[in-house]
Every structure is written in C-alpha cells, then in structure tokens.
Amino acid sequence: GLIMKKSTRRATALIGVIFGEKGTGKTKQILEMANKSVLTAKGNTIFIDDDTSYIYDLSRKARFINASDYGISTPKMLYGFLCGLAASDFDLETIYIDGLLSIIGHELDNLEGLFDDLKKFSEKNSLSVIMSITGSKETVPAYMKEYLL
C-alpha cells in the first residue's frame, strides 16, 4: 500500500499581527520572532518582505523572499502566492510577512476578506502566518483585534 509520510509540522495554526506606527520597531520585532522560531522549528520558515534591506539580519535557516520580485500587488495575488508556497513545501511551518500593507497596497478596512482567507489557509495547512502592519492603534479594524500579538 501507499505509505504516507507523517508530517513533522505542529498542529497549531496561528494568524498574528504585529501592529504599530511607523518607526516603532515592528520590523525588528518580526525579524527577532522569525530568528527565534527557526531555532525550535521542526518545519520550514519563510520571511517575505518587499525589499532586501533586512536580508542579512535574518537567520540563514529561514528562506527570504522579496515580494517585489514576484509582482505581488493585491491581496488576491498575495493569497495565491502563499498557497503556491504551501503547495510546494509540505514542511512549511511559519510564514512571516513584513510590511503587509506596503506589499499589497491596500487599506486595512478592505482586508477582512484576506484575513478570513488566511485563517482558513492557516488551519487547512497547519501553519502560521505572522505579519507586521503599520497603523495607529486607534484605527485597528474590529476584525483584526483577535489577531493582534
């Protein structure tokens, strides 16, 4: 019969958002989270940014992807791209996305659909998606409050 490879991935799926004003250290925080998580990760870690200025601050155990190399410019494109990453890597455990809004160029208020999709995606693939988002605490949309880290 067919022998199924038991996935080494942990079963917890998390959508997390590091939220704050510009210049409050979100990138530093998400890089530290990524670098710390690869030390104990059983699966693979991907870090997506829209420029390469932090590529040398990221652990070599994580895979760095420059979103602008792939022309990702809308929530749907980002979602499709993440699905492709998960489809090609069954050991993918965590995806970090630095500067979500600058990658997809959308307002927070219009992203509830993306977050619903990400939540289903995360659960279906048993992986976590952690994002940094720039904005002021007063403007956090209601749908996003449950994801704040």
Task: Explain briefly what this protein structure is.
With 149 residues, the protein is of the alpha/beta class. 32% of the residues lie in helices and 19% in strands.
How would you explain this protein's 3D organization?
The protein is α/β, with parallel strands linked by helices and 149 residues long. The termini are far apart. It has 4 helices and 5 strands, in the order E-H-E-E-H-E-H-H-E. Mean pLDDT is 91; it is low at 4-10.
Features:
32% helix; 4 helices; single chain; five-stranded parallel beta sheet; alpha/beta; 149 residues
Topology:
Blueprint: E1 15-20, H1 26-40, E2 44-49, E3 63-66, H2 75-88, E4 92-97, H3 100-104, H4 112-124, E5 128-134
Parallel strand pairs: 1-5, 2-3, 2-4, 4-5
Q: What characterizes the major β-sheet?
A: 5 strands, parallel
Question: Can you give the mean pLDDT?
Answer: 91
Secondary structural class: alpha/beta
Distance between the termini: 44 Å
Q: How big a fraction of the residues is strand?
A: 15-25%
Radius of gyration: 15 Å
- Estimate percent helicity: 25-40%
Q: Describe the strand arrangement of the main beta sheet, using strand numbers.
A: 1-5-4-2-3
Shape: globular
Count of DSSP H/I helices: 4
Q: Which spans have pLDDT < 50 for at least 5 consecutive residues?
A: 4-10
Order of helices and strands: EHEEHEHHE
Quantity of strands, as a count: 5
